[in-house]
Amino acid sequence: MALALCGARGEASRPGVLRAWRRLLPARRPLALPPPGEEGEAATVVRVPVAWQLRRARAAPPRPAAPRGKLLLRSRRAELSQAARQTAGRWERPRLVSAGWKHRLSRGDFFQLERAGRAPAQEQGPGAASFPALGLGPLLAAALEGALGVSRPTAVQRRAIPALLAGASALCAAEPGSGKTLAYLAPLLQRLLDAPAPAPAPASTPAPRALVLLPSRELAGQVRSVAAPLCARLGLQTREVGGGRGMGAVRRRLRSGPADLLVATPGALYKALWRRMLTLQRLVCLVLDEVDTLLDPTFVDLVEDILQQAPLSGSLKEVHDVWDPRTQLVAMGATLPKGLGDLLSKVTDVSRFSVLTSHSLHRLQPHVEQKFMRLKGSDKVAELLPLIKDRSPSSGAVLVFCNSASTVNWLGYILDDHKVKHLRLQGQMPAAMRIGIFDTFQKGQADILVCTDIASRGLDTTRVELVVNYDFPPTLHDYLHRVGRVGRTGSQFPGTAISFVTHRWDVDLVRKIETAARKRVPLPGMDPVVKMSLISKN
């Protein structure tokens, strides 16, 4: 009845129905108005549908909070930083800052390995033993303190000196800047002091009693500068033979007097042996320093020929034979390359060698701050200039590493245009010029050295505070050697290394470095010849 009546009334009844429905609906809320006394228009209320809110929450999960406290790794993106108390598991795949660095949009990103302490790891811990406690005589211990100001051995010296004094042939490896030179030089000199004086050799054939073989004249000059003041106090004679001077100069140097210790490079020594300017038949000890570089194809054949001319020992009994002592062989370096065992097995019994390795071998140095910057190649100069210009008078020296001699020269021209005083060092320079340049740098007459990897092996750089990898190194071995130029034993600067990452193949190495840092493990692919640590087989 009511429906029929409503339909009959038609349009006339519609307003009444609408008013009835409005009474059933909830009242509208008034618009939000600004508080009294404030100027401006009414605030606009924007409501997001619940479905949209849920969709946005599922698409973009909340970022993890940045770690608190001291950091091991600091990233530009705080959520990718890692706390110092945290260590990634062995089988864990941590989120890497460098994971997306092969994309061009990653340019400008960076991360930094924070410094853990200011002292090298080998100097930390309880008090070190004295040199006499390790077996060195009082005369040599006094010479070390008087000539070099060294009274306490480092960790690698505490481990290596007793084993080498016993006469054992050894393979020794330790991180850069840990005091490897004195680790073999001190026991070598002690053995020369203890050995009976040999019968005089013919004047025409000099016969040194100890030999240290190094890959470059710069390293040979550095080792001689350490050995010469010690030998002078001990009554021993030292000689240096290097390339670049001509064989006439080598002959005059060898005949200038008997040599208890000879420091030489492979090329010059091989030529002297081939021309019978000297003999190695009276060697008490032979040291291959920076052995990873000596196994480079440039030197390996020369080194093999030199080893074959020395009477290498096969056991401790042969080393200590009074009537016919044989030669103790020591291979020393920051790494022990895998080809070393194959080379030595041709001339001696490698199974009788002691293997001495540092606990920090092949690990990133925790006391050196290391920063990695993803850059476009054309932006590297703009990043480099502030680093070397904005330095205080008390700052240390700077090493800028390039991968080629041409880049060293080109970068040098750029620094000249900006009136930046610097030196350049690269392998295409004559040997005498290279030695003069590095001596000038070590004496502090210039604080910036632009160089190739010729300056990354073994050279003493205790006054260097900053290393800049203008070109990222081609291998992890090269990276360790470059970074090893800072934070060395005896340096007053804790050291910083900054690396520019520009190429896709650079990113592959950076990922390995970042992963090793997060997991606190050695860098991959750098295993020594024999996986034994600090033990002796003899």
Description:
This protein is α/β, with parallel strands linked by helices. The chain contains 19 helices and 16 strands. It folds into 2 domains: about 70-120 and about 365-500, P-loop containing nucleotide triphosphate hydrolases (Rossmann fold, 3-Layer(aba) Sandwich); about 120-355, P-loop containing nucleotide triphosphate hydrolases (Rossmann fold), CATH 3.40.50. It has helices spanning about 1-10, 15-25, 50-60, 130-135, 140-150, 155-165, 180-195, 215-235, 245-255, 265-275, 290-295, 300-310, 315-320, 340-345, 380-390, 405-415, 430-440, 475-485, 505-520, and strands at about 70-75, 80-85, 110-115, 170-175, 210-215, 240, 260-265, 285-290, 330-335, 355, 370-375, 395-400, 425, 450, 465-470, 495-500. The protein has a 9-stranded mixed beta sheet with strand order 2-1-3-11-16-15-12-14-13, sandwiched between helices. A 7-stranded parallel beta sheet has the order 6-7-5-8-9-4-10, with helices on both faces. The chain is elongated and about 135 Å long. It starts with a helix and ends in a 19-residue tail after the last helix.
Based on the model shown, name its key terms.
538 residues, alpha/beta, Rossmann fold, 2 domains, nine-stranded mixed beta sheet, seven-stranded parallel beta sheet, 19 helices, elongated, disordered N terminus
Annotate the secondary structure layout.
Blueprint: H1 2-9, H2 14-24, H3 50-59, E1 71-75, E2 82-83, E3 110-113, H4 131-134, H5 138-148, H6 155-165, E4 170-173, H7 180-194, E5 210-213, H8 217-234, E6 238-241, H9 247-254, E7 261-264, H10 266-274, E8 285-289, H11 291-294, H12 300-308, H13 316-319, E9 328-333, H14 339-345, E10 354-357, E11 369-374, H15 380-389, E12 397-401, H16 405-417, E13 423-425, H17 431-442, E14 448-451, E15 464-469, H18 476-483, E16 496-501, H19 504-519
Parallel strand pairs: 4-9, 4-10, 5-7, 5-8, 6-7, 8-9, 11-16, 12-14, 12-15, 13-14, 15-16
Antiparallel strand pairs: 1-2, 1-3, 3-11
